[in-house]
Amino acid sequence: xxxxxxxxxxxxxxxxxxxxxxxxxxxxxxxxxxxxxxxxxxxxxxxxxxxxxxxxxxxxxxxxxxxxxxxxxxxxxxxxxxxxxxxxxxxxxxxxxxxxxxxxxxxxxxxxxxxxxxxxxxxxxxxxxxxxxxxxxxxxxxxxxxxxxxxxxxxxxxxxxxxxxxxxxxxxxxxxxxxxxxxxxxxxxxxxxxxxxxxxxxxxxxxxxxxxxxxxxxxxxxxxxxxxxxxxxxxxxxxxxxxxxxxxxxxxxxxxxxxxxxxxxxxxxxxxxxxxxxxxxxxxxxxxxxxxxxxxxxxxxxxxxxxxxxxxxxxxxxxxxxxxxxxxxxxxxxxxxxxxxxxxxxxxxxxxxxxxxxxxxxxxxxxxxxxxxxxxxxxxxxxxxxxxxxxxxxxxxxxxxxxxxxxxxxxxxxxxxxxxxxxxxxxxxxxxx
Amino acid sequence: xxxxxxxxxxxxxxxxxxxxxxxxxxxxxxxxxxxxxxxxxxxxxxxxxxxxxxxxxxxxxxxxxxxxxxxxxxxxxxxxxxxxxxxxxxxxxxxxxxxxxxxxxxxxxxxxxxxxxxxxxxxxxxxxxxxxxxxxxxxxxxxxxxxxxxxxxxxxxxxxxxxxxxxxxxxxxxxxxxxxxxxxxxxxxxxxxxxxxxxxxxxxxxxxxxxxxxxxxxxxxxxxxxxxxxxxxxxxxxxxxxxxxxxxxxxxxxxxxxxxxxxxxxxxxxxxxxxxxxxx
Lengths: 433, 280
Prior knowledge:
heterodimer, A: mainly alpha, two-stranded antiparallel ribbon, B: mainly alpha, 11 helices, disordered N terminus
């Protein structure tokens, strides 16, 4: 008993480790990322504090005075400025006197700073005053600070007296990294684009599922069921081709068929129609091909499941019905279809999940176009997070969209597990020693 | 397949054959022309070829400017699918045995988990793994993609192997255990040979699925050094400057050939998986 358990743990460990590391962890991380506003603009490792023009614009709406103050340059008599003045080659007394009398002082405007410089013992000329005051010009605009503390101490030395709350607001407005937020989910819930994509997804799954994965697959299975073995296996072989062909080649073949230099265009050209891109010219055409492309792949699995289920139907039932004079349609209606209930349910469940999650074919064929006509949820998540026309990849929003799919997938598969009576699947192991 | 109910005299086959041929026509056309177009010359507005040529296969001996070398890419693809396959086979043949035969804690939970995991959308994994790889700076390496791909295939593999182990009569193991062999030894030398069809099926499935995988390498390893054939081909199609559909098709056929050969040789094993026949 003991050794069996230990061996079991050892043998299952690699699978557990791999699944946790490369399967569950990414899903958990997706949930984490979905709670952030991570984009390429914020970066993925933490950010810095920068009083950039656009953060000043945000501040202006909440704290106009402070925003204005931040935008203005200040004149601080500090060591760096004093060193620079010494390097100007003016009378040495100027720098010395500034250091002795005014070090650490901050002047809110240029005029005040210059008045002070004019009053120095050396009486610099107006040209020199301008040159000197320039050395003390300290603007915080476009300066980067690695931490909040650095930002606040810089503001303090420039004489900007802020309350702690104001400081927090400034820090928030000037932070360039990502922050925690639930905005992604409210954006998903409220955006009309998302509603459109959701509708597309529902339409896509419903169409492909009913027309091809179940409907056409059943037709194929029944057709080949009544055929002599050789043509039956030939046709099954043909309909399995889309499934085994790598997706890139498979979609390329459809493009060859439907593009403006493709087969349909050339064929229609013989009848005098100008060539056009049948895949992308209208939304209806795009939908037509998207359903066909995915349907041709999906039909094969249903065909195989249904065929093997039909093979399991006792042949005596067919013979008996033939003796009774049943037509082929009556056989299908009263013998085959009633016994196909479970296979059909299984294929429906399984393929719903596959269709919800798959987007390779649409990505390669139409890339969601024309416009956003064939953009489905998974593809939209991919576009949002990893391949965006605007260039700003919204990792957080994309992760939130992916998480929605995860939730739907898990809910559905738990439901299916119930339907298929999970208990029988986990019957006790055969051997116990 | 031979023992199908034979159609009786009052059923005619030709209407069904015709209908099936018509609906299969698009597929037939595509695959026939895939082959034809790679070895023939065709005028732009013609439907039939006008001459033979090997020019479209020139990518085999000359590298297009700015593109990776085809042989390098092929080796990468082979490496990628072979590594994924071995990983999936080793790990799931062990885990499947445990779930089928041994009593480990949380066994039911694990089995249900495997079922549910199978329904996870791969886009979730891609986004998160992309961000993580960027964070730790391990972007653009083949190893990462191999591990992720293997992890995605694992649930199906474990479930399938469990189904195959379930059909092995337990007397075989009993005999081994009674003769004093350890459980591990029993598994390796007695049980594993019994599930050869399952290993073949899973191995082939895994290889084909790795060979055709597009989105993972595209996102996680797009660099020329680690490029695989699917990414190479997609890049070809997106490149408007060197647009040449016939050469593109030749690359496609080159890429498809191993799949067709494997399928022709082993399709009876593969049916076990594509038919969803993992019920055991």
